[in-house]
Amino acid sequence: MRVWVVAMVCLLFGVSAAWAGEADVIAAKAGKGGDGRFRFEVTVRHADEGWEHYADAWEVLGPDGKVLAKRVLLHPHVDEQPFTRSLGGVVIPEGLTSVRIRAHDSVHGYGGHEVLVELPER
Q1: What is the pTM of this model?
Q2: Domain boundaries, position 34
Q3: CA nearest 21: which of 108, 122, 118?
Q4: Which parts of the chain register pLDDT below 50?
């Protein structure tokens, strides 16, 4: 009986960790400041379950996959889904007309839906 209970608990926790899935970027936009730097507003959806499994970051990537900026998310958003966070002061190399935004979660890493953002003219 004890073995069965332990097995069920392990199974439930394993299913729980996988249930939330990967973090998805569902919307993103870029604005340009007077100093030539960019500000990004990014909306992420993830079934955050608490500190053990939550969307913990999003990144701005160049076309070559190089990380141009990263917004760390410091806590779970269990009761706020989807949620939007911003990041300003992002330097984008000259010549780029678009960037890719991807999200990260504490269990699966990267892999959810990404968004391509067209940059405003400089």
Answers
A1: 0.80
A2: 2-118
A3: 108
A4: 1-18
